[in-house]
Amino acid sequence: MKKRSAAHSMRAFNSPSKRTQQLSQTLDEENKEMERIAKLVTGEDKDFLRELRELDIFARADEDPVCSMSIDCSESDNRNIYDGTEYRTYTGMCNNLENFSWGMAGIQHLRLLDNAYDNGRWNARADSVTGTNRNPVALPTSRSVSNAVHTTSETKADNDVGVSLALFYFMQFIDHDIVKTPEGTVRDTIDCCGSDTRAFCMPIVIEESDNDDHFETGYCMDARRSFTVLDCDDDSGFQNQINDITAYIDASMIYGSSEDEADTLRSNVGGYLKTSTADFMPEAADPDDLPCDVDDPSFCFEAGDTRANVHPGLTTYHTIFVREHNRIAKYLGAINDDWSDERIFQETRKIVAAEIQHVTFSEMLPAVLDTDTVSAYGLYDTYSYNSTQDASIIQAFSLAYRYHNMMPATLHMTEADGSSYINTGSHNQEDAFESPSFLFEHNYKGVDQISLGFAFNSCPYANRLMNDAARNLLFLDDNGDSFDLATLNIERGREWGTPAYTEYRSLCGVGDVTDWDDLQSTHTDDVIAALQSVYDDPRDIDLWTGVVTETTVGTSISGPTQSCLVAKQFANLKYGDRFWYESTVFSADQLTEIKKVTLSRILCDNLDISKMPEEIFKTSSTWVDCSSFDAMDLSQWGTSKK
């Protein structure tokens, strides 16, 4: 357990970028002025203040500055051009030359359906379809859904189709490359779990009917609402959430989503990224703002994404790809002695992003989705850039891609034992959160042991249940306070005004739902019974709960609606990316080398290990010598090859 409070940990995990902080601070000043005026006018008239809150005056959003921006992408100053070669901008701006903001950091969520806010503007979705305007019926509390649908009395069994933990952690790694929805700012003087709630507060109070063995009646999870801005094309006051990072698969979790963030991470010598002792990421300058154990600040790393420290499995991938960057930069500098630091850095950044794109589509997605879905959405079709395809993050995808039901109960440390491998150390998952220091264990070999551990061990089943480490003990602190991740996911969908699961099911062509029997094509009888025990109507089912309770398709880890939303987003990320690795950004010979890359080879090149599975996302795969994996021939990037 950590001395930092659970609430502080959650704030650090969802912390906004500097850009969003500036917007949020402006709104906060305006909200404080409204409070001051209200007090002067009413003399602390509580009824009037309540009416103001109901009108959302204390939670009002400002105009989105991007809506009024005018950027000419034909001007070189708005693009990242060096020595006649164009590279991605750090922010994603002008990836699409006709729509400069598509996929850019700070852009609003895309919505496939109209918002389901209770007032059409910002009030969280709260009412069942069984009620009326005159006699509304409340949705079940998010914790009651968690208790009825997602609880398990014992540790979940490992899946029996050989899906390794390497997949689960890599999926989180990719998630942090493409989406981050920041929280709104709440002043330190405001207690969201007290009576004085304002603006972005979202306290989740355990009601008597939700009482269980972990959270007592009256317990409050100090959650916050996401930051919002006014929709660009809607004058009704509709507020929308934003993506704080670039949507593209561009390795922004390594390099950041702004030039300032990249500059902080660069050494400015030889194209290298900064590192610390034993080739780990650099030490964080301000660890208090990061999701890591503040009891030992030297173990908090600086990375392109602020969430890099939240779990050792995630930190391991960050470490490996920082090392991969520097490994490639060293080689490119050696064979191109006329290249500047900037040229080496930009070329290396382009290669690393291409490696991640290739691994995502050639290794990750085949495990996440079934072959029919992959085919239906053209994920493996020959690449052809489509300037009308918006790569920005779809809000429903951000919820559907939360495969938290596959989070294990244990962090495994694994070592070679002759010709086999054994788990030499196991730690409760709740003790692993915010503890990047696990990578330093055994004289800095912890990163190797964690990597072997997630390749050697299996994920839990992809079903509706969640282990206690995530469902009851997330960010557990010394006071015994913690969060329920299932509850948070459900509540997040409601406060975003996300329509119910059944609407997305219909949109995806899975089938309309009017009664409980209509779920039988996608849900087992026991799951339907669990849902029916807490929801009044199937059309009330929250999106996240709906998709993770679907029966998975084939050997994939996704149900049909979940598959649809995930595939739709990744298709946009591929065909809506002008710099996709299969475009003309590489020569034919260079592209051939990139397509040799496997995640196992990347781990072999950057860890002190001798073997890896041929297919790292399958525990049934044969372990082979690292020398067995094809390696990129980086000589193809020599000046003479240009």
What attributes characterize this protein structure?
mainly alpha; 3-stranded antiparallel sheet; 35% helix
C-alpha Rg (nearest Å): 24 Å
| Class per helix and strand makeup | mainly alpha
Shape: globular
Give the helix tally.
Answer: 22
Low confidence ranges = 33-44, 48-59
Give helix % range.
Answer: 25-40%
Largest sheet strand order? 3-7-6
What is the typical, i.e. mean, pLDDT?
A: 91
Kindly estimate the percentage of residues that lie in beta strands according to DSSP.
5-15%
The N- and C-terminal alpha carbons lie at a distance of 54 Å
Number of strands: 11
Biggest sheet details:
3 strands, antiparallel
Verbal overview:
- The chain is mainly alpha-helical and 642 residues long.
- The protein contains 22 helices and eleven strands.
- The strands form five sheets. A three-stranded antiparallel beta sheet has the order 3-7-6, with no helix packed on it.
- Helix 4 packs across helix 16.
- The protein is globular and about 75 Å long.
Q: What's the short story on this structure?
A:
The protein has 22 helices and 11 strands. The protein has helices spanning 6-13, 18-42, 46-54, 142-150, 165-178, 252-255, 259-265, 312-335, 341-368, 371-376, 395-400, 429-432, 441-444, 446-456, 468-471, 485-495, 501-507, 525-532, 543-548, 560-575, 588-594, 599-606, and strands at residues 80-82, 85-87, 107-108, 204-205, 220-221, 228-230, 239-243, 410-417, 420-428, 611-613, 623-625.
